[in-house]
Structures are given as C-alpha cells and as structure tokens.
Design goal:
The structure holds 2 protein chains of 2 kinds. In chain A, strands 1-2-3 form a 3-stranded antiparallel beta sheet. In chain A, β1 and β2 form a beta hairpin. By secondary structure, chain A is of the alpha+beta class. The N and C termini of chain A lie far apart (55 Å). Chain B is an alpha/beta fold. Chain B folds into 2 domains: 137 residues, Alpha-Beta Complex (Aspartate Aminotransferase, domain 1); 252 residues, Aspartate Aminotransferase, domain 2, CATH 3.40.640.10. Chain B contains 14 helices and 17 strands. A 7-stranded mixed beta sheet of chain B has the order 4-10-9-8-7-5-6, sandwiched between helices. Chain B has a 4-stranded antiparallel beta sheet with strand order 13-14-17-16, with helices on one face. Chain B has a two-stranded antiparallel sheet with strand order 1-2. The chains are: A alpha+beta, B alpha/beta. At the A-B interface, α3 of A face α12 and α14 of B.
C-alpha cells in the first residue's frame, strides 16, 4: 500500500516520538530562548537552552525545553534531538548537529552511524524528500541558534 | 449541451501521466497553478518556431507578426474581462507585480489609510505594508467571521474619510470565499477611496466583468487560468492610469528621451517597461480563447457542482473540519481543511503517495490561518478539468492517511 521510500520516512520510531515527544514543554531555568518557524509550511518551535559547566571546563547542555507545532517529522526531530544533546558538552552536541545536517543533506546517499546518531538515524529516509528536510532541521537550527546566544551571554551556572 | 469533462480532460496532456508507475496523477492543486491545454502549448511553440521577434520595433515581417500576436492577446484579455478600452489592459509578470505597481503609484501620505482584509494573499498584503512604511500611511483591515466571511459589521468604522485605498480579494485562495464586492465598493466610493480587487482566484473560475464590478483596478495572473507562468494582468480605469506616474522605467515605456528627462509612452505601454513576456502573452491569449470557447458560465457551473460534491464528501469524513464556508453559497472551489491530530504536511505527503496532489501549508495567507487557529491547512482546489473521480480519489486517500496515522 505504501512505497518502501515512504515507509522508510515514516518509521515506527519517528511516529513513536511524534505521538509521545520527549522533553517537551518550556522549563526554567534557561539562558536563551528562540522562536523559529518554517515560513513555507507554518511549523513553529519555541526553544530554550540551559547550559551548565563553565567556559574553562566547557559548557554542558543541561536542558533543552521546547514548545512546538508541526508535522510528524519536525516534532519527532525535536524529541530525538533533545534525547541526543541533553547531557553532552556543547562541543559534542555541535558535532552531532553537524553529523545530522550532513545526513539530511545527503539525499539518502549517506549511511548514518547509529552509534553516533542513535534514534536520529531514523531520519535517513527523510533526506530523500527535499521538501521535508527543513522539517527535520527546524529544531536543530533553533537549538544551535539558542546555544550560540546562551554561550554569548556567558550564561549557565558556574 | 452538457459539459463533458472527460472530453475537456483530453486537452490536458499532463492529466494522463502517472506520478510513479501505476499511480495516476490526481491534480487538486489548482489554486496554486492550473494545468495547460494543448492549445496553449501549441500557440507558444508556434510563436517561437515561426514568429519570434521583439515587439513594437523593427519593420521586418517577424517583428510585425510578433507585435500583432502580442497586441492581439491584449485584445482577447480586454474582451474576456469586458474592459472598456484596450489601453486599460497592462501586462505584468504576475498578480504580485500588478499589485506592487499599484502600491507604488497610487498617492499615499501621512494620515492616509489603506484598508485590506484579513484573508488577503500575502501578495495583496505585503505590498501595502511596504507602501505604508514608505509613505507614512496606516494599514487597517477588515476582520473575518467564524464561518469564513468578511466581518462587515464595522465596515463604516474601518473605511473612513481617511481611507485612500481599499484593496481586497475577490475569491480567497485559502477559504474559497467569494467576497461581496458591491458592499465594500459602495462604502469605499462613499469616502472617495480607490478600490483594488485581487482577482487571481476569480478570473480563472467565473465570468468577471470589470465594468460591472465597479472597482478602479484588478489584478490577475495567467498561470492560474490555463495560461503560462510569467505573465499577469493589471486592469485599471484609463483616466486613473493616465493620471498616475509610471512605475518601472526603461525601454518601451518612453515617448521622448533626452539626458535631461523623458516623456512617457501612451497607455498601456507606459506601464510596460522593457521587452515584455511575448510568448507568454501569446499563451495567455490562447488560454483566453480556450476558456471563452468553453464558456465561463459553463466552467463556473461545473466547478460549483464539483465543489458541492467535494464539500459533502469531505464533511462525511469523521473529524474533518472545513476552514471556510461549508456551502457553495458565494464560494469557489478551493477547500481548506484540517484532520484532527494529523499535520497537513503529513497529509500532503501521504496523499502524494496515492498520486493526489494538494497544497499544504499556510497558502501565503498566514494571518487568516492564525485567525482560525491553525498553523497550516490541507487544501484541495478544483478547475475546469477536475472530476468527481478526482474528489473520490482524494477522499479514499484521506481515509488511508487516517489509517496510517492510527497505527
């Protein structure tokens, strides 16, 4: 009934995160909050970043909280992203961001590394649908923006 | 003679294609753009194969043929919208350019007000926001009712002596609503405001007579009326266009040029700077011929029947909510809807799997989406070649989408 390509985009793992998103809801404390939207389709996310650690030892992503509205791909991507980045250092999380970005821009030609991307490998199928790549990247772009702002404010608990 | 949609469909080669092996195309994204009949494709091909030249200059045979074809297209458009004068028909790139043109040349200043509606396509909203920012004028708007109509209760308070321009949409691309032009125009005229009507979604689907509408200017685009992309039309009253300053400067739009200054060409050329979209005008002329041969009243009647059928079929789907009027009373064939718990992006993606092409998103009418509390909708829109089979395929597809997300 559905093509293999479509089944590969709407993997069970994506639908699970969509129906039961992790870390959703806006929480205190936070050092930066951003609002990103996808102007072509109306997907929106408000995302907060709370950093721990210190500049000398490296910032740690202490919490990422968000409120969002959008399609299954964008919602699941936000959920999977928070699972991945919370608890990592900012540098580690930025490396994950880069890895995910490359996967999304691969047009389905890159085999994702499950050890690195965990549940996010489920988005490999999305890369074959150019119109949906921006859905998968919405939360990641918001997180990167908010994190840059949080680091810029020298925020986070000492 | 009854309308034979199956015969009409044979004129549109693209309707025979499959989107992937074994999955025929079901095209219901007509409010975004229409498909083109063979007659339009042939006219454009013939133009390039036999008559291509620049217009209004050169005395060779091809230049004269190209000019005759280009100006002939203008005559066809003039007749199609019942303009009083061919000089009132200005070719633009699209509706957006026509509306931007008006937003630049209509006189506005501090203290003046421009009135739009909350259901405008961004193309009839953003140019006026920019104009207000440039000139110090204030932008106001007519709100919407819960059932997808203009809220005219406060019309007298919104359109006042300070109002200089009332710009509004004839038929909403998001809601399908056909607005009461006479009511809004009567109020605008009472305060001496110019009236601008965005006819992008009306001219392709119903007979539009600019003299009966009573507005000062309208805009529409070729590609939604079975013509090519790259050409649109501004119609405005001759006395108005004569009094207003030019918009874009360049070749074609001048009379006498010296280094010190220029005088401008007669209408409509005053507003057609540069080499115009000649092949596109020829294609639009062929589209107008095609629509005229079918008869716009016949087209309108067919689409209304189909819209009734679609509204009934869609509302029979459990939980489905129509965003916009739920009957065909003063309504066209663009139908937006929401399915509970399933985002339009996902609906559109799965429908494509079944060959059904619809539009998802905010349809360049984000304020209206916000008004109805939805970030986006799924929109199915019909055209003269759409059939009940298309609607049946949509409904079957939607049931499958529901099943998919109920897993």
């Amino acid at each position: 009934m559905s093509s293999p390509a479509l089944e590969s985009m709407y993997q069970e793992i994506i639908l699970d995160h969509y129906k039961n998103p992790h870390h959703k809801g806006l929480r205190e404390p936070f050092e930066a909050q951003v609002h990103h939207l996808n102007p072509t389709c109306g997907d929106e996310i408000t995302l907060r970043v709370h950093l721990g650690g210190a500049p000398s030892t490296g910032w740690v992503v202490a919490d990422v909280s968000y409120d969002s509205e959008g399609c299954s791909i964008s919602q699941a991507a936000a959920s999977v992203m928070t699972d991945l980045v919370i608890g990592k250092t900012v540098d580690e999380a930025l490396a994950l961001h880069e890895e995910f970005l490359q996967l999304m821009q691969s047009r389905g030609q890159v085999e994702p590394d499950e050890d690195v991307l965990e549940d996010a490998i489920a988005f490999a199928g999305v890369a074959r649908y150019p119109a949906r790549v921006k859905c998968a990247l919405l939360a990641w772009m918001a997180w990167k923006d908010a994190t840059a702002q949080a680091v810029g404010t020298d925020g986070g608990e000492a | 003679m009854t309308y034979d949609v199956n015969r009409v469909r044979k004129d549109f080669p693209i309707l025979d294609r499959e989107v992937r092996p074994g999955v025929p195309l079901v095209y219901l994204d007509n409010a975004a753009t229409s498909q083109k009949p063979q007659q339009v494709l042939d006219a454009m091909r013939d133009y390039y194969e036999r008559h291509n030249a620049n217009v209004h200059r050169g005395i060779h045979t091809l230049a004269e043929e190209a000019t005759a074809l280009y100006e002939g297209a203008r005559d066809k458009v003039k007749t199609f919208i019942n303009a009083a004068d061919r000089a009132e028909v200005v070719f633009t790139k699209n509706s957006s350019e026509a509306l931007n043109l008006l937003s630049y040349v209509l006189p506005l200043g501090p203290g003046d007000e421009v009135v739009v509606t909350e259901m405008e396509h961004h193309s009839n909203l953003v140019p006026w926001q920019l104009a207000a920012g440039r000139t110090g004028a204030t932008l106001k708007w007519i709100g919407l009712t819960d059932d997808g109509r203009l809220d005219l209760a406060d019309l007298g308070r919104i359109i006042t002596d300070r109002t200089k321009v009332v710009a509004f949409v004839h038929q909403s691309n998001l809601l399908g609503t056909v607005n009461p032009v006479d009511v809004v125009v009567a109020r605008a005229k009472a305060v001496g405001a110019y009236t601008v009507l965005d006819c992008s979604q009306s001219v392709p689907h119903m007979g539009v007579d600019v003299q009966k509408l009573g507005v000062d200017a309208i805009a529409f685009t070729g590609h939604k009326m079975c013509g090519p992309t790259g050409i649109g039309v501004l119609w405005a009253r001759r006395d108005l266009l004569e009094a207003l300053p030019p918009f874009l400067g360049g070749g074609e739009m001048i009379d006498e040029v010296t280094m010190a200054g220029s005088t401008y060409a007669e209408l409509p050329h005053k507003y057609e700077a540069g080499t115009p979209p000649i092949a596109e005008a020829v294609g639009l002329g062929a589209a107008v011929d095609y629509l005229t041969d079918l008869g716009m009243d016949t087209v309108h009647e067919h689409e209304l029947e189909l819209t009734t059928y679609a509204l009934d079929a869609l509302q029979a789907i459990d939980g489905l909510r129509i965003i916009g009027p739920t009957s065909t009373d003063e309504r066209g064939g663009a139908i937006s809807f929401a399915l509970p718990g399933i985002h339009p992006h996902d609906v559109g993606q799965l429908l494509d799997e079944y060959g059904v092409a619809v539009r998802v998103g905010h349809h360049c009418a984000r304020p209206a989406c916000l008004r109805y509390g939805v970030p986006a909708t799924t929109r199915a829109s019909v055209h003269l070649y759409s059939s009940t089979d298309d609607i049946d395929a949509l409904v079957t597809g939607l049931h499958k989408v529901k099943g998919f997300f109920a897993r």
